[in-house]
Amino acid sequence: MKNLIIIILTVIFSIFSYSINVPKIYTEKSMKLEGYEIIEKDINLNNGRPASKLVVYFKKSENNEIQSYMNIYEQTNNEYRLAVQSEKKIKYNFNFTQELSSYMNGLVSSVNENTKDLSTDEVREVEVFNTYLPDELNLALKYDKNSPKFNDFLFIKKSTPVNEKPVETSAVLETVSYPQKIKVNSMIRSNISGDWYEIELKDGKKGYVKVSENVEKRKFNWNKIVEKIDVVNTFITQTLEEKKKVYTISAYAPLSRDYYGEKDKFGNRPNQSIKGYKAPDSKEYVNIPDRTIFRLLGEKDGFYEIETPFYGGPYYIKANPNTIVEENELTGIITKFIVIDPESQSEAIIERDKDKWNVITYSFVTTGKDNGSSSYESPHGAFLIAYSKPVMQYTRNRKKDETTVANYLKVGNRDDLVISGEALFAVRFSGGGYLHGIPATYGGGTAAKKAYTGQKIGTYKESHKCVRHYDDQIKFIYDWLGDATPNDEKGLRKPINPTVAIIF
């Protein structure tokens, strides 16, 4: 959904670049525009202003959207002059009039809140952040301890003051600091006082934070979540309708020596992946990670021809039956999803209930960081969850001065590695990439180390490939996946229902 942009002009009513030409002066006889439906209503603004007019023009566009243009006419010297313009696109797949009405109310509220105490000749542009839960999703939380009560937020990177007004000389209400995440309502751009975020503090008070490198605007991208889920399920449905089968890539080699090759155009490195070539004789390829969902189109010149939901295709992978797994349990759409957004360091757990998609929990996470040598970004794509287990041990490189290593820290016959610590409730989604709890390094001060690592969840990419969670959050996910293989000799738990992890 496109963000709302409004321009508020004082003293001199000039017009910014706008997609349609509307009358500069409101009269009942001159407001119609060819090709547009129109909504008119009287509105009241604060600060003792006289009654104003809101005029909305809208029409259906070619891409199944409602294109709408909102205009506020303020009363000046016994006439209504154009003061505010706004543009918004609305999807046409649900009751758009309801959203349009909500949006108009938000516009009026934003004008009221963010045009107080304007200086002479001051121009303010207000961008209202209105990320919402789309009609396809229903908030039906089964675990909400770590679920924030907002969609748009500021991540505070360094301490910064919260002012009473979007002016540096105004009173300071409080100071916010790393690693806080705070609800943000809008951005105000002023030709006098600069750029500000309007935020909402825990006590409900509103304040203003200067736009700077100390803060970063983020959001829970619900619309993108719906789009990605639709892509996966459309891919599976089409595959089954064409009498083809769904497969996954098998390229997991536990404790393998890392191959730190170049990133492909999707941002994936070749670690625990296979090469998908554009043609059997082509040198151009993408890295297709372990557990990636794909369909098999055929075999040609010693290659399998495949297609994937997110990387597209066709691609050609070497015809090795050991590198692909036929997923016979995928006989219909996926009803359980784990969706991870590395940009906002967030995650949502989605499940199907009859004809509705429910968000049953959502939280912040820590995803993988690509440092160019020893750690990786969490791979981007759609991955069928392999299994879960109650504890995951992790390793590190053995130090040069470590002449002796305790037996319980040794890694098989590997002299270059030692077991470093463990994390609770691990869920393997791709290669050695797991969703897991806060890592606990063996040795003294474990509790303090966990607390320090825990407070960084939802801040920056930092893990080596995995996705870190609060311990209680991953425990909920672990239980939610269930155990379809209770007698597994290694204690590995296959999910009761096929579940896909999507990483943007």
What is this structure, in a nutshell?
This protein is mostly beta strands and 504 residues long. Helices cover 12% and strands 41% of the residues.
Rounded to an integer in angstroms, the radius of gyration calculated over CA atoms is: 27 Å
How many helices does DSSP assign? Answer: 4
CATH-level-4 superfamily name of the largest domain: L,D-transpeptidase catalytic domain-like
- The global form is globular
Number of domains: 4
Word description of this protein:
The chain has 504 residues and is mostly beta strands. It has helices at 96-114, 222-241, 446-454, 471-481, and strands at 4-9, 25-26, 37-43, 52-60, 65-76, 79-91, 123-128, 137-139, 152-156, 160-163, 172-176, 181-190, 194-200, 206-210, 215-219, 246-249, 273-277, 285-289, 293-300, 303-308, 312-318, 324-326, 336-341, 346-353, 356-364, 381-384, 387-397, 410-411, 414-430, 433-436, 440-441, 467-468, 499-503. It folds into four domains: 1-128, no CATH class; 152-218, SH3 Domains (SH3 type barrels, Roll); 223-326, no CATH class; 336-503, Beta Barrel (L,D-transpeptidase catalytic domain-like), CATH 2.40.440.
Comma- or semicolon-separated keywords:
4 helices, 12% helix, mainly beta, single chain, 504 residues, 4 domains, SH3 type barrels, twelve-stranded antiparallel β-sheet, globular, six-stranded mixed β-sheet
